[in-house]
């Protein structure tokens, strides 16, 4: 797989604060790449250096084979959507975006065609002549993505694209990003680990300016895939031993959370799988687990895949999602 972004030994300091410390990783073409980390991890600094808003103290960033220190060579090929992208509230959407394309050297006809196409992609073509002040928060987010996609760039950086959105609007943005993947490589900075695991195929995790983990989501979560299972009764020690003897089952742990203890009709367990063997997948392991439970006259009431990317995040950063 070809890499479209290559980050090598990137370092940046702000006085005594080390924002990035010799960070190196690659971003594959046509991937949706998630950038994760606690507050202050260096995500925004990294985005800013890729876009050449900031200069690195050391190291290099290449996008599409071009050093971003020569950012003008990437005009039209690289785009960024800041978390709090601002628009003129009392100017029609169409007029604002057409103006941006005129600045990029397009004719008025070309600019209008590009803008209408981009607005159609995000479902805003019908409101092109409305003012930004009349749009909902979710529509403004989609407008920002429309702006980022103007000119059909090959690499798009999205900083917290669903921050502050209700679940329905966030879902629309995620679906839109997946559609854009057909045309570009998308790099997404997000605090929502469930969202990243659903949306992204590759991730990098930063912590205190250091790269602590990078790779495909499947590789990162494969060794310790987790499932939450609610059972009709507690398991005996001998039953637990029988279940953990199944190939691919790493461990089974009883939940002790308040939410789990509130249910008197079921007992919740966390089933952690070890799928490192090439011939194993989660279905090949979970199926015999469920059959064994039924043979024990234990009824599985609910089975949901756990949040193993979140588990990895907690392990490598020593933090919690709520405190990022």
Give a short summary of the structure.
The protein is an alpha/beta fold.
Give structural notes.
The protein is α/β, with parallel strands linked by helices and 324 residues long. The protein has 2 domains: 218 residues, Rossmann fold (3-Layer(aba) Sandwich); 101 residues, 2-Layer Sandwich (Alpha-Beta Plaits), CATH 3.30.70. Helices cover 33% and strands 28% of the residues. α2 packs across α3. The two termini are 32 Å apart.
Output the CATH class name of the largest domain: Alpha Beta
State the helical fraction: 25-40%
Gross morphology: globular
Number of domains: 2
Contiguous helical run count: 11
Strand order of the largest sheet: 6-7-8-3-9-10
Please provide the ordered H/E string of secondary-structure elements.
EEEHEEEHHHEHEHEEHEHEHEHEH
Q: Which ranges are low-confidence, i.e. pLDDT below 50, for 5 or more consecutive residues?
A: 257-263
Provide the gyration radius in Å. Answer: 23 Å
CATH fold annotation of the largest domain: Rossmann fold
E-strand count: 14
CATH architecture of the largest domain: 3-Layer(aba) Sandwich
Mean pLDDT: 86
Please report the distance between the alpha carbons of the first and last residues: 32 Å
């Amino acid at each position: 797989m070809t890499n479209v972004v290559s980050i090598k030994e990137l370092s940046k300091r702000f006085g005594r604060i080390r924002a990035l410390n010799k960070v190196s990783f690659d971003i594959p073409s046509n991937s949706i790449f998630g950038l994760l980390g606690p507050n202050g991890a260096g995500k925004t600094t990294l985005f800013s250096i890729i876009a050449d808003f900031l200069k690195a103290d050391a190291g290099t960033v290449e996008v599409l084979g071009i050093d971003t220190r020569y950012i003008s060579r990437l005009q039209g090929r690289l785009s960024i959507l800041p978390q709090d992208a601002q628009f003129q509230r009392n100017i029609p959407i169409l007029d604002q975006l057409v103006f941006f394309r005129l600045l990029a050297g397009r004719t008025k006809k070309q600019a209008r065609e590009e803008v209408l196409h981009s607005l159609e992609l995000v479902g805003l073509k019908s409101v092109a002549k409305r003012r930004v002040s009349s749009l909902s928060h979710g529509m403004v987010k989609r407008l920002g993505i429309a702006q980022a996609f103007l000119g059909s760039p090959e690499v798009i950086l999205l900083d917290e694209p669903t921050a502050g959105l209700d679940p329905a609007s966030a879902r629309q943005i995620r679906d839109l990003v997946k559609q854009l993947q057909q045309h570009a490589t998308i790099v997404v900075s997000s605090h929502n680990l469930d969202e990243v695991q659903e949306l992204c195929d590759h991730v990098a995790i930063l912590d205190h300016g250091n790269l602590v983990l990078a790779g495909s989501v499947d590789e990162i979560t494969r060794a310790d895939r987790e499932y939450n299972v609610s059972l009709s009764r507690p398991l005996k020690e001998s039953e637990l031993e029988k279940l953990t003897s199944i190939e691919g089952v790493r461990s089974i742990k009883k939940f002790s959370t308040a939410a789990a203890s509130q249910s008197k009709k079921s007992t919740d367990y966390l089933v952690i799988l070890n799928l490192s063997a090439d011939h194993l997948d989660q279905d090949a392991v979970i199926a015999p687990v469920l059959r064994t439970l039924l043979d024990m006259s234990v009824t599985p009431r609910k089975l949901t895949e756990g949040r193993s990317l979140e588990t990895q995040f907690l392990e490598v950063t020593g933090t919690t999602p709520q405190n990022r």
